[in-house]
Amino acid sequence: MSSEKIVDLRGKRALFFYRQRPPVDKRVPLRERKRKLRLIALTVLFLIFAVGAFGLHYVSYMGRFSVNSIEVKGAATIDPGVIRQYVDHVLNDGPRHYLSRSNIFLYPRSVIEKDIVIDFPRIKSATLSRPSFFSTTLIVTVQERTFFALWCPDASKQGCYQMDDSGYIFAEAAVDNPAKYIFGGGLPSAPSTIGQVFAPSHLSEIIALLERFTQTAYIPEGAIVENPRDFSVPLKDRFIIKASFDMDPDTLIKNLQLILSNPPLRGNERNIAYIDLRFGDRVYYKMKGDTPVPQAQ
C-alpha cells in the first residue's frame, strides 16, 4: 500500500474528452455586402425621386407660374367672353391633377386649340400663345369662318345654314340671309347639320362650273347633289341643268349652248323645265308640263 502513487486531478484541465472549436470567421460574404449596398442605393434613389416629384408638383401650382389672365383676339361674331370662359374651364377643370393644367409651361395647348374648333363650329382655327417666356397672360387668337353660301334642306329655302368655301356648315342662317349660291343635298345622315361638310369630294368641281356659268348669259343659283354621281344646277329665272361630276365644265356649257341653238328650244328657254346633259351625245329635255323628250346633239 505504501508504494502506490497518488495523482491529484483537482485544478487540472481535462486532457481527454474535450475538442477545441475552430475560430468563427466574422467577415460578411462579398455577395451579401453587395446586396446591402444595392438596397441602400435604391432607398436613397427612391427618397430623391419622392422629394423631386413632390417638389415638381408644388412648383407647378405656384402662382408665379400659373395663367392668371386670358385674352381673346380675332373674335368678331362670337363673344370673346365665351371663349375666355371656355379656356379657363379647361385649365381649371376641377380635379387637382399631379401637375397643374394652368401652369404656363404645362398647359394643354394642342388640346385646347383642337377642342375650340370642335366646340365652336364658327371658328376655323385657334392658336394659343404668351407674350413672353415668363408671362402669365395667355392669348387666344381665333380665325372665324367666312360665310360663302347657304345650304338648304329643300327647295322651300327654309331652315337654311351658313357654310364656308370649304363646304363646312357652321351656323344657322337668318330667314333673309342673302347668298351668292344656295346648295342642297350632299350630306350624310347625321343628328346635326352643323359640323358637316357639303360634297367634300366634288365641291371644287361644282364651284368651278358655277364660276364658268357666270361668264355666260346664264346665272346659276347654286347646285343640288342628287347622288354620288349626279348633281343639278338651277339657273336663275330659267331652267335646271342635270349633269355628272365627271363632266368637263367647258364641254358641258358648250353642249348646253349647242342644244339651245336648235329648235324647238331656241327662243323658248323660259318654258324649259330642265335639260339633262348626263348621257353624252343624247340630251334629254323637258318642257314645263310635258314629259321628257330625247334630243340628239
**Superfamily (CATH H level) name of the largest domain:** Cell division protein FtsQ/DivIB
Strand order of the largest sheet: 6-5-4-7-8-9-10-11-12-13
The number of domains: 2
Q: Please give the CATH architecture of the largest domain.
A: 3-Layer(aba) Sandwich
Query: Could you name the ranges where pLDDT drops below 50 across 5 or more consecutive residues?
Result: none
User: Helix-strand pattern, N to C?
Assistant: HEHHEEEEEEHEEEHEEE
> What share of residues is helical?
25-40%
Number of strands: 13
In DSSP terms, counting alpha (H) and pi (I) runs of 4 or more, how many helices?
Answer: 5
Strand percentage lies at 15-25%
- Rg computed from alpha carbons, rounded to a whole number of angstroms: 43 Å
End-to-end CA span = 165 Å
Largest sheet: 10 strands, mixed
- CATH class call of the largest domain: Alpha Beta
- What is the mean pLDDT? 85
Which helices and strands occur, and which strands form pairs?
Blueprint: H1 30-60, E1 69-73, H2 80-91, H3 109-119, E2 123-129, E3 137-144, E4 149-151, E5 161-163, E6 169-172, E7 182-185, H4 203-213, E8 222-225, E9 230-234, E10 240-244, H5 249-260, E11 272-279, E12 282-287, E13 293-296
Parallel strand pairs: 1-3, 4-7, 7-8, 10-11
Antiparallel strand pairs: 2-3, 4-5, 5-6, 8-9, 9-10, 11-12, 12-13
